[in-house]
Amino acid sequence: METKKLHICKLEATQEWLCLDARAYIAECLEACVTVEMLADLREIFPRQALTVASVQVCELQRKRIQRWLKEQNGEVHDLGESSQVLQSAMDTSLGQCSS
User: Fold this and answer.
1) Three state DSSP letters for the chain
2) Which residues of the chain have pLDDT under 50?
3) Which pLDDT belongs to residue 91?
4) CA dist 39 to 7, 33, 82, Å?
5) Nearest 10 degrees: Cα torsion 43, 44, 46, 52
6) Does the CA dihedral 67-23-35-92 come out positive or negative?
7) What are the structural domain ranges in the chain?
8) For residue 1, what pLDDT is reported?
9) Alpha-carbon dihedral of residues 60, 15, 7, 80, nearest 10 degrees?
10) Which residue, among 53, 41, 46, has the nearest Cα to 9 in the 3D structure?
């Protein structure tokens, strides 16, 4: 697995980031994530607190997928192994169950 330095947004979440419209937009972006790389891009763009607040609006299945990707990005997962691949496959096929 290739290691790449993550660029994480260092901005503090201001009221503009935490307003309802911004949270809804960020939640839409999180729902649209289909790869770990897309999540890395969002972490580079949006303040951490804004992502956290918006994530509660994301469907449970997508939230679990994002949590797994975050562990990967933070180096908490060293070997994805077969069980993770099976989980990913199951999540991919049932992602359509998430509705906005």
Assistant:
1) CCCCCCCCCCCCCCHHHHCHHHHHHHHHHHHHCCCHHHHHHHHHHCCHHHHHHHHCCCCHHHHHHHHHHHHHHCCCCCCCHHHHHHHHHHHHHHHHHCCC
2) 1, 79-84, 86-87, 89-91, 93-95, 100
3) 47
4) 11, 6, 22
5) 20
6) positive
7) 16-91
8) 46
9) -10
10) 46
- Report the candidate in 12, 19, 18, 15 with the shortest Cα–Cα distance to residue 47: 12
Instruction: Indicate the residue type of 1.
Output: M
Do the Cβ atoms of 49 and 17 come closer than 8 Å?
Answer: yes
Q: Quick one: pLDDT at residue 7?
A: 87
**In contact, 91 and 61? CB cutoff 8 Å:** yes
pLDDT of 75 reads 87
